[in-house]
Amino acid sequence: MGLLDSFEKGLERAVNSAFAKTFRSGIQPVEIASALRREADTKAAVVSRDRIITPNSYVVRLSPDDAERMLALGGALTDELHALLTTHAKSQGYSFSGPLSISLEADESITTGTVRVTSGTVEGRVSWQAVVDVDGRRHALTRARTIVGRGSDADITISDAGSSRKHVEILWDGERAMMRDLGSTNGTKVNGEKLREAALPTDTTITIGRTDLVFKIVPITAPARPARPRDDDATRAFGVI
């Protein structure tokens, strides 16, 4: 079950920030999703009979405590928010004005239990980045060859007694990736199958000892220039319970 399954079932309610202050229970992923969806709906603009445009750049601002908890979920949260907003836009017939971008930021002026969403239109280009998610932490592969293992000299270090000091290498040429076992003691599994080397399509799970590493290829937006400012680009705040 995903982080936002309850949101998909319609289990979300919005209240004012004063109510959120009283409970101080902290923000939940479902509430961030609700605020994003509402922002997209509010900013949607009809540009022709067959086209409705909604912003493509969203900044989610949270209290420092809420931001710390949400960021600890790693890339799984932002990936799911991205997928959910994309699905919502499609169901409503919206078109994004450029590549979709969602970021989370801590803001000391935001009260615990409240989410504030700013949105706008940013034109840009998309490049692709290889990443590895390990225990909720995302590692970008910035080299052609990345070593994973228990040793402190590995590029990605994992604390697993079942791994070798230099266990596997991941090769990435900007378009394709592959994994190669470096003669490890206990071997390596790719999607549950023990292999010495294998191609790595996105969402491939590499298992070393008891540790799962998820390889992904994700879009990275490089903004070119902001679109013409709009009067309705003001920040909108939502308190949620």
Automatic annotation (TrEMBL):
<feature type="domain" description="FHA">
    <location>
        <begin position="146"/>
        <end position="195"/>
    </location>
</feature>
<keyword id="KW-0597">Phosphoprotein</keyword>
<dbReference type="InterPro" id="IPR008984">
    <property type="entry name" value="SMAD_FHA_dom_sf"/>
</dbReference>
<dbReference type="InterPro" id="IPR042287">
    <property type="entry name" value="FhaA_N_sf"/>
</dbReference>
<dbReference type="Pfam" id="PF12401">
    <property type="entry name" value="FhaA_N"/>
</dbReference>
<dbReference type="Pfam" id="PF00498">
    <property type="entry name" value="FHA"/>
</dbReference>
<dbReference type="InterPro" id="IPR022128">
    <property type="entry name" value="FhaA_N"/>
</dbReference>
<dbReference type="InterPro" id="IPR000253">
    <property type="entry name" value="FHA_dom"/>
</dbReference>
<protein>
    <recommendedName>
        <fullName>FHA domain-containing protein</fullName>
    </recommendedName>
</protein>
<dbReference type="InterPro" id="IPR050923">
    <property type="entry name" value="Cell_Proc_Reg/RNA_Proc"/>
</dbReference>
